[in-house]
Amino acid sequence: MELGAQLDEAAIRRVRGSFERQGLMRHLGARMTDLRAGIVTLHLPFRAELTQQHGFFHAGGTAAIADSAGGYAGYTLFADGTEVLTTEFKLNLINPARGDLLEATGRVIKPGRTLTVCHLDVWAIAGETRIHCATGLQTLICVRADRADAAPTERG
Amino acid sequence: MELGAQLDEAAIRRVRGSFERQGLMRHLGARMTDLRAGIVTLHLPFRAELTQQHGFFHAGGTAAIADSAGGYAGYTLFADGTEVLTTEFKLNLINPARGDLLEATGRVIKPGRTLTVCHLDVWAIAGETRIHCATGLQTLICVRADRADAAPTERG
Amino acid sequence: MELGAQLDEAAIRRVRGSFERQGLMRHLGARMTDLRAGIVTLHLPFRAELTQQHGFFHAGGTAAIADSAGGYAGYTLFADGTEVLTTEFKLNLINPARGDLLEATGRVIKPGRTLTVCHLDVWAIAGETRIHCATGLQTLICVRADRADAAPTERG
Amino acid sequence: MELGAQLDEAAIRRVRGSFERQGLMRHLGARMTDLRAGIVTLHLPFRAELTQQHGFFHAGGTAAIADSAGGYAGYTLFADGTEVLTTEFKLNLINPARGDLLEATGRVIKPGRTLTVCHLDVWAIAGETRIHCATGLQTLICVRADRADAAPTERG
């Protein structure tokens, strides 16, 4: 499947259904605003419940939506009967994360049967302004759906 | 100051005061359970609001407390009139993050006037069992308190 | 200066002069094939002296040219009288590094007075084929030229 | 097998034999000075051929021996008929890499059937002085020996 291609209804349901089961995303207030083959975008509107000590978005919230965006970007490409776990990720925080909302995009750079590697990018949006506030890399592992309780170092 | 040394009252107040201003930590339910010179430990009790799609702790919550633990570990060593920002961090998720609570420890490996580097470790605690569920590295930047709104690439 | 802009003669001399003082790049056989504002490309032709145990390029060689490409990409933007040190980098190895040569590109994502962040990418070139074999992130620190012997955690 | 345990003759031969096939390690002048279950140490004596522009060890050489130390630390634990590939690694450079030699240690933090995670540490040794100059994390993948030419994202 080509990167960025339209997903069929079943795939959209599968990915959105999984996202909606993530208690943390709901608790933070994140929404999945776009999903295509290998590319997923999430929005996280600003709330005082998401801040660090200076009143900006906490890097933990930035990381949480970046991780979910990448995880679901990979998951759009996975076969039925499999699940996704994050093996590792790394994030560089390059501009202040302040504004009306954060937008995180995960984009598959290398799909694989075992491991999938994604680029992660987060923008802080304030009115018309978009500031690139974080960039990262993530490694995902594809596991059998009945082994999603295993360590993220095991293929299952 | 020696790593692990007792902090004085003023330092403890400064660090705890900053932690209490982090809206995200309160929203997630994290508590600072130990702070010494260059070493800080946080606890995050399990709640459905912290889960990923399989009902375990979401890597974003793991990352959030690991980042705060490391940030405050560095901050215990910083001079008055300065603030801490995270420049980057990287986390390997090595075992399932499931249990009654997560315990995150940040530990300064290299204190610096500009940058400080920390090891991050997270354990999943279930009853008597402690499982090492994540290990990471983090780079912090020390900025002037009146420049904490600048980019985390600038010393201020 | 715009990313990708032509550099003037003095800047080209300064960057190439520094690259030529890197004993490791000469020992590996790396050449700087392109340099523009914030973007530098290096080539590393295949030799048995660069291999890992299966006869492909060793990840250490891939890392070495990726690090130098990024370091010099940042350095093209630095003021006179300053030097560049690598603070940290992270590399994902996504395809086999085999072929006639490796091409590494460093590209500044966020220039800063203190820290500069780069994307690193390496391709393995075999005849007409280009395979993306590594992607990474790097943080550079700008130090005073007379403090280039300090720790890469200090601005100098 | 317990971390740090003595290896048997066959395992030592298997690991040392593989290390000796790494053309890059020979070209740099690295030696394997210690190997135990899950822990491997390499030495890299200083030479002008290993320098960056200021005459210290180039981060690429530091990365190369850190990567090999970690890779072989993992390999000591792998089953016969398998090979090791590096999936990703990240290195923080925390002190100047200058001295008579670099010592790199790779240490398995999480052994796995598919992925193995290592801590990497490098010291710069000058006479009696040991300076911790780099610390890192690495993810290895275990592949079938006849699939060691596959991408480091595939279990093979």
From TrEMBL, chains A, B, C, D:
Q: Mind telling me which CDD domains this protein's record contains?
A: PaaI_thioesterase
Give the superkingdom in one word: Bacteria
Segments forming domain Thioesterase: 54-127
User: Keywords in UniProt for this one?
Assistant: Hydrolase
Its recorded reaction(s) are: a medium-chain fatty acyl-CoA + H2O = a medium-chain fatty acid + CoA + H(+); a long-chain fatty acyl-CoA + H2O = a long-chain fatty acid + CoA + H(+); a fatty acyl-CoA + H2O = a fatty acid + CoA + H(+)
> Which E.C. number(s) belong to this protein?
3.1.2.20
Q: Which family does it belong to?
A: Belongs to the YigI thioesterase family.
Name of the protein this chain belongs to: Medium/long-chain acyl-CoA thioesterase YigI
In which organism is this protein found?
Answer: Paracoccus stylophorae
